[in-house]
Amino acid sequence: MTSMHVISSRIHTIIGLIVGAVLVVAPWIFGFADVEAAKWTAIVVGVVILLSELTTTSPVSPMKLVPMRIHVWTDVLVGVVLAASPWIFGFADNDAKVWVPHLVVGIAVIGYALITRTDDETAATTTRTREPHATSGL
């Protein structure tokens, strides 16, 4: 059976940083800044995603605090909350431009989390330790 984990932790982190940043400005991009619950949900979740990506064990994260295995499942949880947020926080009855971005981005976060390899930094370390050392030839 072929593994569906096709995204490296490096690419996952880059995607997450972009998603987090876009969520922070989404209320003004999509025109729902006047709907307080939708606006603050996007901003808070965006900041949470940004901080989360900056603290994983991914090669591009500056602070290596949270193992990718845990981070990915945190992303799934954040994605579920974001996707359900229009109903949880009561803005699902607004125009589609208000609630659809939350639903779509939440589902996307779940999706890219579930297809992320969480062991690539371990694999890279193992590969490096098994490589033969160069000799001077003398």
Summarize the helix and strand pattern as letters.
HHHHH
Q: How many strands?
A: 0
User: What share of the residues does DSSP label as strand, in percent?
Assistant: under 5%
Secondary-structure content class? mainly alpha
**Major beta-sheet overview:** none
Chain oligomer state = single chain
Total count of helical runs of at least 4 residues: 5
Plain-language structure description:
The chain is mainly α and 138 residues long. It has one domain (9-118). 65% of the residues lie in helices and 0% in strands. The chain is built from five helices and no strands. The chain has helices spanning 9-29, 36-53, 68-88, 96-114, 120-130. The longest helix has 21 residues, at 9-29. The radius of gyration is 19 Å and the shape is elongated. The model is unreliable at 122-131 (pLDDT under 50).
